[in-house]
Specification:
With 343 residues, the protein is of the alpha/beta class. It has helices spanning 85-89, 97-106, 128-131, 133-144, 161-169, 184-190, 197-209, 230-240, 256-267, 272-282, 301-317, and strands at residues 33-36, 43-45, 55-57, 60-61, 90-93, 115-117, 148-152, 173-179, 214-221, 244-249. Helix 5 (161-169) links the parallel strand 7 and strand 8.
């Protein structure tokens, strides 16, 4: 299945197509199309004070996971696509990402620093199983001893434990698993092609057992829909071996608010008004807040209540204030040119 049931016109498009009685109904679960992204840059930089990193790498634009709330959906509109079905079915792939990464790390202008993978879309989305671009990028990072931070909601990350555990021995990697709910019936419509909750908890367990520093991100918290699950998620993640925990509040930029509202109509009609009202409570009366400082956590009494619940639940679950940092002191420039072979 797909997360979105529609494919609205992008906000930059000048031509708008309107349905009539002769319009053939479009496929609600179109096949994934792989489109080659010929960009010659691979590293994205940001100066956001609430992200905790400045450099990121995204091998894919668009995401098959199809999470209906995804804040990255509007980025597809810059490509002439829709934030709806196009975002989760038309995936722009940077096939040359590993080679471009080697070039960047080999440049004297590169300052060794943490490189976050999945700063925008998930680097372990389903097509990674076949294309293996993320794995090849990890091989480059391991070779150069450049630290990396991975954020994903797919158990596929465990495929690369062989690389990750060797990087972990040199303090070169941390992994964060995003868990939105422990309920399969919610996850299968909210995040249709992401790993199911139990599989994500199992991924935490496997990474921890391999000695890879792994944390959990309760994300996004959707007030009125999954906020009451915070204690259960933290307890399950800690029992599996997670050593750190964080959370982010849902935000619905641009057309995402309409896609999410449509999702509520179809999958949670009885909770619709409560959920939208509570999101507005933590977003200053709106459904989105792009401002630094409040966009990740929300604001107001209800946001404060959620923050307190998270803090208490984290302590009860057994998380302690401990930082597992990575180091860039071991960095070395790549030697020669590495060849990548398809398997």
């Amino acid at each position: 299945g797909r997360g979105s049931a529609q494919n609205p016109t992008g906000r930059f498009e000048k031509v708008v197509l309107t349905r009539d009685e002769e319009w053939t109904e479009e496929d609600s679960a179109p096949a994934t199309q792989i489109l080659h992204d010929t960009s010659q840059s691979i590293i994205s930089y940001n100066d956001s004070p609430d992200l905790g990193f400045s450099a990121s790498l995204n091998p894919y634009r668009g995401c098959e996971h199809g999470c209906i709330y995804c804040y990255a959906r509007p980025t597809h509109e810059y490509l002439g696509f829709s934030a709806g079905l196009d975002f989760e079915s038309k995936i722009m792939v940077k096939m040359t990402a590993p080679e471009l990464l080697r070039e960047v790390l080999g440049s004297r202008s590169w300052k060794p620093q943490v490189l976050v993978m999945s700063g925008n879309t998930d680097c372990y989305q389903p097509i990674e199983r076949r294309l293996r671009i993320t794995r090849k990028c990890l091989e480059v990072l391991a070779e150069c001893r450049n630290p990396a931070g991975i954020i994903t909601k797919n158990q596929l990350v465990t495929r690369d434990i062989d690389i990750l555990k060797e990087m972990a021995k040199q303090q070169l990697v941390t992994v964060t698993i995003s868990v939105t709910s422990l309920r399969n019936e919610l996850a299968e419509t909210l995040e249709p092609r992401a790993s199911r909750p139990a599989a994500r908890i199992e991924a935490i367990r496997q990474l921890a057992q391999a000695g890879v520093p792994v944390g959990v991100n309760v994300a996004p918290i959707i007030p009125g829909l999954n906020d009451y699950e915070i204690p259960a998620i933290l307890k399950a993640a800690r029992a599996a071996g997670a050593t750190s925990a964080g959370f982010t509040m849902v935000r619905l930029p641009h057309g995402v608010k309409d896609l999410f509202t449509d999702w509520l109509d179809k999958h949670a009609p009885d909770a619709k008004e409560k959920v939208l009202h509570r999101i507005q409570e933590v977003r200053g009366g709106r459904l989105n807040d792009p401002n630094f400082g409040s966009r990740m956590r929300g604001e107001g009494p209800y946001a404060d209540q959620i923050a307190r619940l998270f803090k208490v639940a984290r302590q009860k679950a057994g998380f302690v204030s401990r930082t597992y940092g990575v180091t860039a002191s071991l960095f070395r420039r790549p030697q020669g040119k590495q060849l990548f072979f398809e398997v």
